[in-house]
């Protein structure tokens, strides 16, 4: 057993704390010796790293624990946007130094995901090409609807199905909402027609996906060269085009260096949203790119159909503000399970 959840959560928000500061911060009721043993257990398990000696000893979370320790989202978002203690600027160390050291999924989580993937492969092997295409079309309708709903689109799932199958728009909706959904359909068709397109991730291919998703919408094409704000957070993405391109290339290098396909897909979902390389359409591009990686490697794509839009946004915001991906990883695992069991 490592350190308690309370100690780990305190150190997440208060790195380089002394033992006394930890005890006061979590209102520890036991003896100092007991607290010392708990911290030592966290150090032994690799959750906590120690700097300094004697009275100058300070404790922080290891990169693995900082990125993956569960944080209480309800408590976190009870605080007003201006009361939350956040990292307001882009973390340059995240992609180059922290994430390369970290295994995103536990061995137990990987065992579950790989078992589901084996189930998916068995089912697909029994399908004809036409049956496979029909299931992908069904998944694609759900993905187009949910991905657009997360961005504020008001089409219902039934209205989305009618639009994508019969090209019939819904009454009382804007043209832009229909275009957003139809663009998802085009992007997914492109990925299915070119399944190896994102076998190796490149900046130019990501830009191609973004272009498909924002066609005929009032969205600037290519890497942005001006500031962009994100509703609901004080996190500010990079605003220098050169640095954005550099971050995107670092992201591509990191993802391409990973062997595990689940890690590749999760990193694409998180980092394309975090970097915010485009003036709009970043999360849509992230979801399609992540699915393109899964498809390129013969893995089941995700529709995100059952994810709550608010939960999705909260999980993304806590990654922006704390670089903690635990909540979003749970969404990924849950949605992979749903996709395998629902579509194939």
Please characterize this protein's 3D structure.
- This protein has 16 helices and two strands.
- The protein has helices at 5-13, 19-25, 32-44, 63-68, 73-78, 92-98, 107-125, 129-150, 157-166, 175-193, 203-213, 241-257, 261-275, 282-296, 309-322, 326-343; strands at residues 48-51, 58-61.
- Strands 1-2 form a two-stranded antiparallel sheet.
- Helix 11 (203-213) packs across helix 14 (282-296) and helix 13 (261-275) runs antiparallel to helix 14 (282-296).
- The longest helix has 22 residues, at 129-150.
- The mean pLDDT is 94.
Task: Compose a concise summary of this entry.
With 344 residues, this protein is mainly α. The chain contains 16 helices and two strands.
Shape: globular
Strands of the largest sheet, in order across it? Answer: 1-2
Assembly context of the chains: single chain
As residue ranges, the low-confidence spans are: none
Total number of beta strands:
2
Structural class estimated from helices and strands = mainly alpha
Strand content: under 5%
Helix content: 55-70%
**Major sheet characteristics:** 2 strands, antiparallel
Number of helices: 16
Rounded Rg = 22 Å
| Nearest-integer average pLDDT | 94
